[in-house]
Amino acid sequence: MVEIIKIGFLSFTILDLLDIVLVTLIIYKLYNFIKGTIAQQIFFGLILVLLLSFIAQAANFKALGWLLKLITDIWVIAFIVLFQPEIRRVLVMLGRYPLLQRFAKQPDVEVANILTEASFEMAKNQHGALIVVVKSVGIRGVVETGTLLNAKLDKLLLRSIFYPRSPMHDGAVIVRDGIVEAAKCTLPLTNNTSIDGINLGMRHRAGVGISEIADVISIIVSEETGTISVAESGNLKRGLSKDTLRNYLINSLSLTKEKGWKSIFD
């Protein structure tokens, strides 16, 4: 390995430089990811504890070093517990990239057509609906909160489920690979009560909430206004037309190979 600098018996190689650059980039991206959240303050607290522990050991402060060692010995577990929401978001984000979805099933355009037609027919009659379309990894825990169906995706089936007098119209429908897995499912709510100055109802909060923690698309039909929205990755798009919804579903469900891993470092 080519040496860049050598001081005595210590040498600094190109591999060492690459290692430092990669670690710096990862720390920088992690900091940007948690910046502006409560996790940022916790992160600084953990860094402070590690620095104090290092100083205590260097200065031979036995009592302080012993106390800080107790904390640093469990810092990995504390990190996982305290940063659980952020770690989950990072893992979900990584799982969304095509490199990890190489063997994923290519969604059929027919799925997008059925969802679009059913959504707009329900919107026309102002029948509220919440449809969660799974893109990659399943959401078994959510599916188990509802009524299992495992039925072929069909426009009339969706309309029947969300008919106001249907016993299963409350809650969400989970669709995966052209199959209606379950209905009447309970979804986690987002902490945001409004987006762009517009208050969110429970159906919209649920649609956004599940999109924050899973690789899904939520289709939300408003019972009050008949408008259609989609939520993905915690973002909400309102007032979609039929063509816009259909194209959005086709593009989002399809694997975009050109996206690759570059988005992780954008």
Characterize the structure shown.
The chain is an alpha+beta fold and 266 residues long. The protein folds into 2 domains: 3-101, no CATH class; 109-255, DNA integrity scanning protein, DisA, N-terminal domain (YojJ-like (1). It is 47% helix and 19% strand. The protein contains 10 helices and 11 strands. The chain has helices at residues 14-34, 38-58, 62-73, 75-82, 84-95, 109-124, 140-143, 155-161, 202-213, 242-253, and strands at residues 3-7, 10-13, 129-134, 147-152, 172-176, 179-185, 194-195, 198-199, 216-221, 228-232, 235-237. The strands form 3 sheets. A 7-stranded mixed sheet has the order 4-6-5-3-9-10-11, sandwiched between helices. A hairpin with a 6-residue loop joins β9 (216-221) and β10 (228-232). The chain is elongated, with a radius of gyration of 24 Å. The two termini are 31 Å apart. Residues 98-107 and 255-266 have low confidence and may be disordered.
